[in-house]
């Protein structure tokens, strides 16, 4: 959960049920219930709290803006929840769970006591800092003389918040996080104890594994349908999909919606990849591509040709480029690929060549395709960089641990790869409204044959879908989805048998270590 540091000074506003404000002044402790409450609240000062939940907030608070703290006892996630709202009642976040646990009871007790004598109250505050993007300190003060804060005199309503802030919360951002994953048609492992039940949860397992990387760019291979990625990753926009040349799996490229508003799809013709040009105002400009290349050992020359064509296409648009995905490469092919089109950096090598993070396929331990599959390991999945503005900071694997304590049961036959890449500093502006609309449409609109010309912004995909001339067919009937779901298990099982045969014939078994 994201949060941003800022300071809120909150006051206690007291008013009678008729709307007339009533001050709560200190009196001898044995005089009136109101005076006793004043003394009690006067002792409850200097509470240091934190505003969180900016990812789901409907607005962003600005320094100097007036806010109000509102209890949410019916919140399904936390009975102590305290919402922070602006002058128009729009949520800008919540008090952190730890802070709410401390403050909620005090607010509830005070409210109950004052209600008995006909007094309503509200905890109000002023935001006095801009924050650092991760924590948002809140200084809550109860004033015995009533509130000096008037929400109606506050600044104009806050600007709309993005659904997910950048890692620096809108401050200067200097890295991009990349994630690539061959998800094997989102089918469960042959080692799953209950494949029927696992098929129901498989999408969620994949989604959670990817999102734990907190990626800005997601590359998927062997996606089960063209709409699977955008339907699963709701805060991301799919640039488009295409089919691989050797399997009936979709290649997808998804951008965090803040980035997607500055993207245009790059037409790769019939090559097995999806690419986008990203030009951030006053920030970096680069191309990024998700690929899935042919798999056989004899396909080395074909992989080199495809890499050359894809990399040439990207280099013709931007000096800085990223290519990632399932290359199906063997180690002996490394030098040829790295030397293409002026030279490319292998992120795993640049980040230290950790042996523990080398192999993205290891059927010695990952028995996804069953115990009869050959045992071997390979570094099929890669991330390559080109350009003076891009450099590797880190590389890691994900989804590389067994599930449910079953040592042979994994999410996919491949492990996912993720990397942090340094880029020139930039700030991502607020996303366009139509970007949000595209991601929200993904639940009910199925896009087929999604190919955008290189000059077509990704944010116009839903609009262009209504015009056949743009090469996009929008299916609103849902009938194809039902047919697809009905045949998916059989199709996936057939694909599994083909892949098992492929690994049994093309790759020599390795000795178990």
From TrEMBL:
One of its GO terms (molecular function) is zinc ion binding. Keywords: DNA damage, DNA repair, Hydrolase, Magnesium, Metal-binding, Nuclease, Nucleus, Signal. Residues 1-18 form the signal peptide. The keyword Metal-binding applies. GO terms for biological process: double-strand break repair. Its cofactor is Mn(2+); Mg(2+). It is found in: Nucleus, PML body. It comes from the Eukaryota. Gene3D superfamilies: 3.30.70.2330, Endonuclease/exonuclease/phosphatase. InterPro entries: Endo/exonu/phosph_ase_sf (IPR036691), Endo/exonuclease/phosphatase (IPR005135), HIRAN (IPR014905), TDP2-like (IPR051547). GO terms for cellular component: cytoplasm. The keyword Cell inner membrane does not apply. Residues 46-146 form the HIRAN domain. This is HIRAN domain-containing protein. It comes from Thalassiosira oceanica. The lineage of its organism: Eukaryota, Sar, Stramenopiles, Ochrophyta, Bacillariophyta.
């Amino acid at each position: 959960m994201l949060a941003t540091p800022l300071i809120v000074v909150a006051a206690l506003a007291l008013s009678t049920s008729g709307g007339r404000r009533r001050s709560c002044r200190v009196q001898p402790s044995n005089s009136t219930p109101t005076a006793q409450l004043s003394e009690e609240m006067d002792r409850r000062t200097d509470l240091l709290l934190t505003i969180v939940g900016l990812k789901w907030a409907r607005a962003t608070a600005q320094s100097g803006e007036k806010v109000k703290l509102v209890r949410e006892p019916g919140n399904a996630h936390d009975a102590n929840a305290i919402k922070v709202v602006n002058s128009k009642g729009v949520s800008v976040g919540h008090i952190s769970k730890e802070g709410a646990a401390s403050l909620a009871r005090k607010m509830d007790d005070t409210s109950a006591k004052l209600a008995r004598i006909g007094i309503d109250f509200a905890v109000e505050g002023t935001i006095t800092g801009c924050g650092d993007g991760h924590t948002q300190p809140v200084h809550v003060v109860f004033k015995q003389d009533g509130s000096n804060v008037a929400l109606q005199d506050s600044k104009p309503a806050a600007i709309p918040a993005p659904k997910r802030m950048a890692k620096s919360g809108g401050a200067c951002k200097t890295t991009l996080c990349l994630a690539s994953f061959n998800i094997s048609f989102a089918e469960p492992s042959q080692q799953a104890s209950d494949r029927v039940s696992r098929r129901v949860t498989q999408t969620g397992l994949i989604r959670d594994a990817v999102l734990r990387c907190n990626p800005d760019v997601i590359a998927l291979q062997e996606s089960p349908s063209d709409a699977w990625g955008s339907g699963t990753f709701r805060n991301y926009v799919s640039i488009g999909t295409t089919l691989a040349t050797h399997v009936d799996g979709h290649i997808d490229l998804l951008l965090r919606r803040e980035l997607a508003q500055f993207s245009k799809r790059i037409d790769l013709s019939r090559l097995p990849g999806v690419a986008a040009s990203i030009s951030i105002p006053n920030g970096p400009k680069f191309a990024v591509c998700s690929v899935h290349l042919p798999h056989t050992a004899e396909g080395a020359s074909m992989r080199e040709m495809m890499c050359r064509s894809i990399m040439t296409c990207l280099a013709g648009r931007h000096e800085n480029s990223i290519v990632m995905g399932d290359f199906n490469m063997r180690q002996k092919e490394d030098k040829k690929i790295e030397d293409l089109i002026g030279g490319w950096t292998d992120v795993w090598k640049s980040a230290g060549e950790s042996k523990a993070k080398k192999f993205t396929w290891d059927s010695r331990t990952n028995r996804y395709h069953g115990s009869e599959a050959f045992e071997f390991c390979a570094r099929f999945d890669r991330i390559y960089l080109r350009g003076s503005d891009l450099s590797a900071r880190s590389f890691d694997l994900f989804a590389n641990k067994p599930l449910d304590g079953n040592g042979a049961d994994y999410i996919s036959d491949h492990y996912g790869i993720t990397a942090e890449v340094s880029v020139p500093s930039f700030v991502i502006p607020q996303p366009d409204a139509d970007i949000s609309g595209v991601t929200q449409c993904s639940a009910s609109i199925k896009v087929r044959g999604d190919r955008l010309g290189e000059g077509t912004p990704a944010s116009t995909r839903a609009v262009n879908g209504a015009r056949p001339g743009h090469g996009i067919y929008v299916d609103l009937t849902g009938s194809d989805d039902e047919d697809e779901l009905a045949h998916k298990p059989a199709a996936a099982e057939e694909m599994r048998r083909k892949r098992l045969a492929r690994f049994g014939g093309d790759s020599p078994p390795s000795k178990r270590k």
